[in-house]
Fold:
Amino acid sequence: YANLTKFFVWTLPTNGGEALVILVSIACGWALPILPVQALYINMFTSVLLGMPLIFERQDPDAMKRPPRDPRSAILSFELFMRTGFVSILLCAGAMALFRHELDRGMPEEVARTAACSVIVAGEAFYLFSSRALMKPAWAVPLLSNAWLWVGIGAMALVQVLFVHLPAANRLFGSAPLSPASWVR
Structure:
């Protein structure tokens, strides 16, 4: 149950951030920072490569010291719901800011969109560490306690590099190669 909750706590804000990017850009009359096919790419790969390793998280050592959970209680508590909203806003703000920054630097929309997609994927990877501990700080869970997490992050990094630099992926997803400086931003 706890690992399922961790998956929801990770998935909802990451999808929420993507949705906010599209909604905010439509509401403001701006060009879309990520295309629907790019949102589909992000969801397909990050859900499997980043989200699924949460299933293999070790049980919290304090789990048996807590009273049983009320079976009628919601999966997301108020605190986790607020966290979902906050992370969604952070992902949206990061993607929108880098998209606008790349456009302001004179980059083509394809490059700006690729940068925005990369921000979302990187943000989801970093947020994954926080999702491992629901009501504790991220550093409360040992970094090396889940090898599948690192396999997933490594695989996602490889897939993201291919998304950015592989010509077939550029044609399929409307992405474009990024300069080293854009990668750093």
Q: What stands out?
A: The chain has a mean pLDDT of 90. The radius of gyration is 17 Å.
